[in-house]
């Protein structure tokens, strides 16, 4: 199975990138996960603007994948502007149309990325994106700055078990 994981920020250091890197390694026997960076995309400024080669390559990788994982931080109760910009490009290229998407998020706080994920679900379900997400499912990595050991592994066995179950359900969702 081929998946892509989208890092939902353009920051050089990201706990969401770290989460996707953990998933890439941890679930390697179940799926190949290629991590895509939105920092490689230019800002979406004008609906009449043609997609660049970077956007086309990014979109083509999504179209070729069996599923997509988006890992978003939460900034001011929503997704970061660079992720919104990337989603605008994807609405133009139709890369997420009817694509199965898993939403995750890592944050420093106790609520995880609850509000950002709610907003992201609304955006993903918009007519121009039409992504398919698992109903009522979310993975929130709370206090993510303390969640990983020096090797990038999740420290808490319960959190890892929750992620394992969530990922297994996503694989079943893709295959359904």
From the 3D structure, determine the CATH topology. Rossmann fold
Instruction: Report the count of strand segments.
Output: 6
CA-based shape:
globular
CATH architecture: 3-Layer(aba) Sandwich
Largest sheet: 6 strands, parallel
Distance between the termini: 14 Å
Mean pLDDT: 96
CATH class division = Alpha Beta
Structural class: alpha/beta
Helix content: 25-40%
Note poorly predicted spans. none
Q: Please tell me how large the radius of gyration is.
A: 15 Å
DSSP helix count?
5
Description:
With 176 residues, this protein is of the alpha/beta class. The protein has one domain: 3-Layer(aba) Sandwich (Rossmann fold), CATH 3.40.50. It has helices at residues 15-26, 53-64, 81-93, 114-124, 157-175; strands at residues 2-7, 32-37, 67-71, 100-106, 132-133, 139-141. Strands 1, 2, 3, 4, 5 and 6 form a 6-stranded parallel beta sheet that branches. The radius of gyration is 15 Å and the shape is globular.
Short account of what is shown:
With 176 residues, the chain is an alpha/beta fold.
Features:
FMN_Rdtase-like_dom; 176 residues; alpha/beta; 6 strands; Oxidoreductase; FMN binding; six-stranded parallel beta sheet; NAD(P)H-dep_reductase; oxidoreductase activity
Topology:
Elements: E1 2-7, H1 15-26, E2 32-37, H2 53-64, E3 67-71, H3 81-93, E4 100-106, H4 114-124, E5 132-133, E6 139-141, H5 157-175
Parallel strand pairs: 1-2, 1-3, 3-4, 4-5, 4-6
Pfam families: FMN_red
GO molecular function: FMN binding; oxidoreductase activity
InterPro entries: Flavoprotein-like_sf, FMN_Rdtase-like_dom, NAD(P)H-dep_reductase
């Amino acid at each position: 199975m081929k998946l892509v994981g989208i890092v939902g920020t353009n920051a050089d250091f990201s706990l969401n990138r770290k989460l996707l890197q953990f998933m890439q390694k941890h679930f390697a026997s179940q799926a190949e996960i290629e991590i895509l960076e939105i920092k490689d995309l230019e800002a979406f400024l004008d609906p009449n603007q043609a997609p660049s080669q970077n956007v086309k390559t990014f979109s083509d990788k999504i179209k070729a994948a069996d599923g997509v994982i988006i890992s978003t931080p939460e900034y001011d109760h929503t997704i970061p502007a660079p992720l919104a910009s990337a989603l605008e490009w994807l609405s133009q290229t139709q890369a997420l149309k009817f694509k199965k998407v898993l939403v995750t998020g890592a944050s420093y706080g106790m609520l995880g990325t609850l509000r950002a994920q709610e907003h992201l679900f609304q955006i993903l379900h918009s007519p121009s994106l039409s992504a398919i997400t698992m109903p009522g499912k979310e993975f929130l990595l709370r206090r993510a700055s303390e969640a990983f050991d020096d090797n990038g592994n999740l420290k808490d066995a319960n959190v890892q078990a929750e992620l394992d179950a969530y990922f297994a359900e996503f694989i079943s969702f893709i295959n359904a």
